[in-house]
Specification:
CATH topology of the largest domain: Rossmann fold
Oligomer: single chain
Number of helices: 11
Number of domains: 2
Structural class: alpha/beta
CATH class of the largest domain: Alpha Beta
Strand content: 5-15%
Number of strands: 9
């Protein structure tokens, strides 16, 4: 059981007593969040972002709490971001990978998590290649669970940090023209962003070859194009998705070169977008495939801002889930 928050706890984050977290004990999917939950995360993240700019980047908000990062699927940015977020909140952190846990000996994911909980872990962050893994874990343990990516299902904190980044650059979501390019069918980033952006009435267009666009995706409130140039016209935000080589069981396009030819975002193609367009990418990037170096390092790119903002968003999520009760 997690220790209760005491009256002496001090934190610079938003006051949760008035407009507290309403989405349950876990963060598994963007679909489960109401607007007020999202705004609470955004407000808390804004304060924690200021903390990350200080000379001393830690606050005692989660002192005495323990966070376990259970990354069964490999990760660099997300794993390090969650680890830094927990440490900046002064939590104790345990990092586990599939190769370093008893899962390689045949222990189930649930049994591993229950063992961690019995040692006093307050929250488990999980990344897993199987869709629904985070949900299964959340049903099995009392500790809070954060989904850091489950197969091709969802990646909620990535969508939240994307929203934070877009707003930080002065964009209003209502009516915002967002173009999302790439393998929509296998992208958990795309799915979470679609759920989040449409909650705020953004105008989302997904672009890619027919093999990469799920059938009936229009039912989620987005439009579809198989042609990049017309879709980019007057776009205010361009979200570029990574070509996921590691998930390929069958090729969804003739070749890497062919994909880059038709769907790679270059400086010339980006010129079709609005003059103040923002370019986002969840990383890691395949330069010269889905994005050119000129675009990745150009003035419109906010990719490094996404990375930095991810720490603030994850600090907010860890704080809100751990101290809400």
């Amino acid at each position: 059981m997690r220790p209760k928050k005491t009256s002496s706890s001090k934190t610079p984050a938003a006051d949760t007593s008035q407009e507290g977290w309403r989405a349950g004990k876990d963060l598994l999917t963007i679909k489960s969040l109401e607007i007020r939950d999202i705004e609470l995360i955004m407000g808390s993240a804004a304060t924690f972002h200021e903390v990350s700019g200080r000379a001393i980047k830690t606050v005692p908000a989660l002192r005495g709490r323990t966070i376990a990062n259970l990354f069964i699927e490999p990760s660099t940015r997300t794993r390090i971001s969650f680890e830094l977020a927990a440490k900046r909140l002064s939590a104790d952190v345990v990092n586990l990978s599939g190769a370093s846990s008893s899962i390689v000996k045949g222990e189930s994911l649930v049994d591993t998590a229950r063992a961690l909980e019995s040692m006093g872990v307050d929250l488990v962050v999980i990344r897993h290649s199987a869709a629904g893994a985070a949900h299964s874990l959340a049903r099995a343990i009392n500790a809070a669970v954060v989904n850091a990516g489950d197969g091709a299902h969802e990646h909620p904190t990535q969508a939240l940090l994307d929203l934070f980044t877009i707003r930080a650059h002065g964009k209003k979501l209502d009516g915002l023209r967002v173009v999302m390019i790439g393998d929509i069918s296998r992208s958990r980033v795309a799915r979470s962003n679609i759920h989040l952006l449409t909650k705020f009435n953004a105008n989302v267009c997904v672009v890619g070859p027919p093999t990469m666009i799920p059938p009936h995706i229009e039912q989620l409130g987005v439009s579809v194009s198989h042609h990049l140039e017309p879709a980019l016209k007057d776009a205010q935000v361009v979200m570029i998705l990574r070509v996921q080589h590691e998930r390929e069981q069958r090729s969804l396009y003739p070749s890497i070169q062919e994909y880059a030819r038709w769907y790679g975002v270059t400086k010339e193609r980006l010129a079709l977008a609005a003059s103040d367009v923002l370019v986002l990418h969840p990383g890691p990037m395949n330069r010269g495939v889905e994005i050119s170096t000129e675009v990745a390092d150009g003035l419109s790119s906010v990719i490094l801002d996404q990375v930095a903002n991810g720490i603030a968003i994850r600090m907010a999520v860890l704080y809100l889930l751990t101290v809400k009760q």
